[in-house]
Amino acid sequence: HSDIFTDSYVVRKKFDSLMRRASGEKIFIENQNQSVEVYYYSDGSTTIDRYMRFYKSNDKMLLEYGTLSPESVINREIVCGNVSKCTFHQAGRAVQLILELDNGTQKNTVVTSAIAHN
Q: For 88-111, what is each residue's pLDDT tens digit?
């Protein structure tokens, strides 16, 4: 299998898993639908104190984790490469990701959605 098919699987699983941790109260789609930011509870917390943001930068899909107060980045990781297009859409507590991957020889489109459960 090509890297884009492996990346398709990884991004779908990661997006679904992390969106399930998110609070449905705070979902922000920004940057012309190219990024989504959600809030969540850190382990053991009784208040929403963290954020995570999926976004496209150049040809990569990145995931950033951080604290809300004070606002600071904890970690930033590359979820996948070869991203030619990325859009997010929201309907209530559900967020849809449409991601187009292109490594120059093969193309693949990932369409997935997840519901914020907290």
A: 999 989 999 999 999 999 999 999
Structure tokens at 90: 């929201």
Torsion angles phi and psi, residue 34, rounded to 5: -100, 0
pTM over 0.85: yes
Collect all residues with Cβ–Cβ distance below 8 Å to 61 and sequence separation of at least 6.
11, 54, 55, 78, 79, 80, 81, 83, 86, 99
User: Is the peptide bond prior to 70 cis by the omega test (within 30 degrees of 0)?
Assistant: yes
Cα(43)–Cα(41) distance, integer angstroms: 6
Question: Backbone dihedral region of 44: left (phi > 0), alpha (psi from -120 to 50 degrees) or beta?
Answer: left
